[in-house]
Specification:
Elements lengths: L12 H13 L4 H31 L11 H5 L6
């Protein structure tokens, strides 16, 4: 079993009362309820960091749109003006 650490949390009495009610409805302790929420928050943050790194890597490399590159002369050719 993993080692657990106790923490001190300062919250308003009304919030604690509501948290106890939620925990009781779920058959959990307030401590277990908070630990579950923190695990989920940390997992979501890790997924965000991974997705951000992947997105930045995609943005740092050029996007291939297919086709062949045009020469400078072809790009600036203006047939209507000649």
């Amino acid at each position: 079993m993993a080692t657990k650490h106790n923490i001190t949390l300062a919250i308003e009495p009304a919030l604690l009362k509501k948290a106890r009610a939620v925990a009781a409805r779920r058959g959990r302790s307030v401590s277990a309820l908070l630990a579950d929420e923190l695990r989920e928050l940390v997992a979501e943050d890790a997924q965000y960091v991974t997705a951000r790194k992947r997105a930045l890597a995609l943005l740092s490399s050029p996007l291939s749109l297919g086709g062949t590159p045009l020469a400078r002369e072809d790009l600036h050719e203006r047939p209507r003006l000649r």
